[in-house]
Amino acid sequence: MNVEFINPFLTSLVNVLSMMAQTQLTAEKPRIKKDETALGDVSGLIGMVGPQTKGSLSITFEEGLALDIMEKMLGERPEGINEEVTDMVGEITNMVTGGAKNMLGEKGYEFDMATPIVVSGQGHTINHKGDGPKVIIPFNSDSGKAHIEVCFDK
Amino acid sequence: MNVEFINPFLTSLVNVLSMMAQTQLTAEKPRIKKDETALGDVSGLIGMVGPQTKGSLSITFEEGLALDIMEKMLGERPEGINEEVTDMVGEITNMVTGGAKNMLGEKGYEFDMATPIVVSGQGHTINHKGDGPKVIIPFNSDSGKAHIEVCFDK
After folding, report:
1. Among the partner residues B115, B122, B152, nearest to A54 by beta-carbon distance
2. What angle do CA A9, A53, A93 make, to 5 degrees?
3. Nearest-CA distance from A148 to chain B in Å?
4. Contacts of residue B55 in chain A, CB cutoff 8 Å?
């Protein structure tokens, strides 16, 4: 695993949520995903295509954390995961990937982003099917967990 | 909606399942997704990036259909959606998108594919967040339903 490639995604999520929603996430150490299954309630997914590599990213939120972010951003807490919440998760996915893209571009790794997809459904699991290792970064917060998964083809 | 852009995905899924798993799908007419929510049990998702456009595709299967495809391909029916099933759904997603990419390339529409992601979880929903219309193509079969959703930014 190339840490240089993974840390920009970690930094970018922490920055985006801190700026947009005054929500502090604490990241655990990124690790290679093996048998681990991370369950989530709402996930943003995006594809990445570059000249050197291609891959996929997901950001999964527990429902409580997603609703908390909405409340902090809009002043009102939705009752559950509705279209406004999935729009926000899609937007966060775009911003986090865009932030990481900028940081990686400065290091000479270029890629273009596809458009995001948001999955909702209690306790779903995400399986990245690229050829490279699947890296998982768990995040903790007062209102629940999130995690990023990234997989690039070698 | 540009039918020329959507039909290759429809044709490609029907071809792939007929060839790989002797499974006949009947497609309904593609339509713009509005309030419609299509629930599924296992979905393959992939991002697409091209010089003219970018977008995302999903193929969602009901569990019974996914298990039936596995049984027809491998001679053995898994008890539920396991890693072998998600691998197969990822592979089908790649093949369908690759088939459509070839057909569209002949018409001058070029794009590159990211790597697939497979989501599992009973009754999840998929929300494409690109700017363009979301097109949904429902498919019926003897063992259950599938549907493709495609969204391209204009």
Report:
1. B115
2. 30
3. 13
4. 114-115
Kindly list the averaged pLDDT for each block of 10 residues, start to end, along chain A of length 154.
85 96 95 80 97 94 96 93 96 97 93 96 93 94 95 86
What is the sign of the dihedral through the CA atoms of A20, B57, B50 and A150? positive
- The half-sphere exposure of A54 on its side-chain side, counting CA atoms within 13 A, is 17
User: What is the distance between the alpha carbons of residues A2 and A4, in angstroms, rounded to a whole number?
Assistant: 5
For residues B103 and B11, what is the distance between their CA atoms, to the nearest angstrom? 10
Distance of CA B76 to the CA centre of its chain: 23
Q: Write out chain B residues lying below 8 Å of A121, CB-based.
A: 119, 121-125
For A57, the closest chain B residue by CA position comes to: B117
* pLDDT single digits (tens) B80-108: 999 999 999 999 999 999 999 999 999 99
Strand, helix or coil for residue B12: helix
ipTM of this complex prediction, to 2 decimal places: 0.92
